[in-house]
Amino acid sequence: MNVLGIETSCDETSAAVVSDGRTILSNIVASQADLHALYGGVVPEVASRKHVENMIPTLQEALKTAHLSYQDIHAIAVTNRPGLLGALLIGVSAAKALAYVLKIPVICVNHLEGHVYSNILTEPSLTDAFPILILLVSGGHTQIIRMNGQGIYSIIGKTRDDAAGEAFDKGARLMGLPYPGGPNVDRLASSGNAKAVRFPRANLGDTLDFSFSGLKTSIRTFTAKDQGATRMEDVAASFQAAIVDVLVEKLKTAAERSGITTICIAGGVAANTGLQKAMRIMAINQGLRLVIPPIELCTDNAAMIAAAGYYRLQNNLADTLDFDTLANSPLG
Amino acid sequence: MLPPASDIQLRFPDLEATTQFGLMLGDMLKSGDVIALNGDLGAGKTTLTQAIANGMGIIGDVTSPTFTLIQEYPGTIPMFHIDPYRLTDPADAYDLGLEDYFDRDGVVVIEWAAKIYEYLPMDMLVISIELPELTSNDEVRTLTMRGIGDRYIELVKSICMRYPEMCVMVTRAIDEF
């Protein structure tokens, strides 16, 4: 079964075709594909109504790459929540129109559930491993999700202020590093001493919640006092460790408390090599199975939406054409 | 009596005092109000917004909208929390559908408001949050407020009456906000 996935919840216009929930036939992200040269489409830097201009070329490219036509698609999965209403509406309208014309089922997917399924797309055998824990870390979200089965979630920890990806980007800016901050910090940190500067870790007592807002003040105070005396690599490594340590520690605690032995990471920050390394060490020490998706499935993409939609359809959770878009919608 | 063009300044000694102010302000707001926040990274714009939301009766965490751009919080009076930090061109505010939010029932709070002034309504409460000198207590915050339009001039007066001993009147150019 070929599911066409559509994702327009934030910055990326993406379309993908996934076969049987596990084989990616195409996964096109407008900002990455050279659509401008191909179709004269506009690639926006931030989420906007410009999704309109990218939607059709992105869909066409997804089918072309998969060597399929619309007639070969059996169902459509689309992100309808949470996100920017104006942005979501473009993907949802395209999905509904296609489903209506092609007379095939349409399934609406929670964007956060999509990130969860990036792990199942990477390791289909995870569907036999429930319950599992997923640390979702991106620019807009930071949470620990407990997945008890297909479509059954509870959020057991989340950020109370800034997301981890945002902390990376804003910290990088305060250090004077160029955009995008996260990858630049990661690159510098790889050759730095993480113990050079002691930045604070917010543990928030006994909870599995996160807080990264205070790190900004620490970086600001440090850079103003330090005046460039400490090597940039060491500052970056120390700053990265302040985020990574908390993420690893909270996921470790979540696994200990729940007795769950399969852990996953997802979202754009999951591509951070420092986080991946620290997670691998923790997983080995704790005897846990760890799944990390490849980078193209960590960042926002439609393949994960197609996979989530496929499994919802297997569980008879297809939607009727009147489903709505929602700005705010937690999992679970 | 405050002349209409004057601004007030309040200096809060710690996070708790700033939070108390936010709670009080939130309680004074009504549907249709627009609050514009300015201040450097780490000044406490999101923290103040959290307190304003709680003061409006919205329960739960208010997380930074930097990446999501707009977050909506349902409530008796809903809150729309907007953050144009990532916008590179003020015209992106149009593509974002920003103007739709000013017509909806609820309170709109905008961080990094100075980036998109031309897309904001004429009347609003502008709050600038200043960080302390690096040598002093890093929890101190100075809030300078300007009410633009009748509703917000009244709001500034009411705030002033709640803090009679702390309120300092200042005169600054609008472009400093």
Features:
heterodimer; A: 332 residues; alpha/beta; Nucleotidyltransferase, domain 5; 2 domains; 5-stranded mixed sheet; 11 helices; globular; B: 177 residues; Rossmann fold; 8-stranded mixed sheet; 8 strands
What does this structure look like?
The complex is a heterodimer of chains A (332) and B (177). By secondary structure, chain A is α/β, with parallel strands linked by helices. In chain A, strand 9 (262-266), helix 9 (273-286) and strand 10 form a beta-alpha-beta unit. The model of chain A has no long low-confidence stretch (mean pLDDT 93). Chain A has 11 helices and 10 strands. The two termini of chain A are 27 Å apart. In chain A, strands 3-2-1-4-5 form a 5-stranded mixed beta sheet, sandwiched between helices. Chain A has a 5-stranded mixed beta sheet with strand order 8-7-6-9-10, with helices on both faces. Helix content of chain A is 42%, strand content 18%. Chain A has 2 domains: 2-115 and 297-314, Nucleotidyltransferase, domain 5 (2-Layer Sandwich), CATH 3.30.420.40; 130-295, 2-Layer Sandwich (Nucleotidyltransferase, domain 5), CATH 3.30.420. In chain A, helix 2 (51-65) packs across helix 3 (85-102), helix 5 runs parallel beside helix 7 and helix 6 (181-189) crosses helix 8 (232-258). Chain B starts with 6 loop residues before the first strand and ends in a 7-residue tail after the last strand. In chain B, strands 3-4-5-2-6-7-1-8 form an 8-stranded mixed beta sheet. Chain B has a single domain, classed as 3-Layer(aba) Sandwich (Rossmann fold), CATH 3.40.50. Chain B contains 5 helices and 8 strands. Chain B is globular and about 45 Å long. At the A-B interface, helix 5 and helix 7 of A face helix 2 and strand 3 of B.
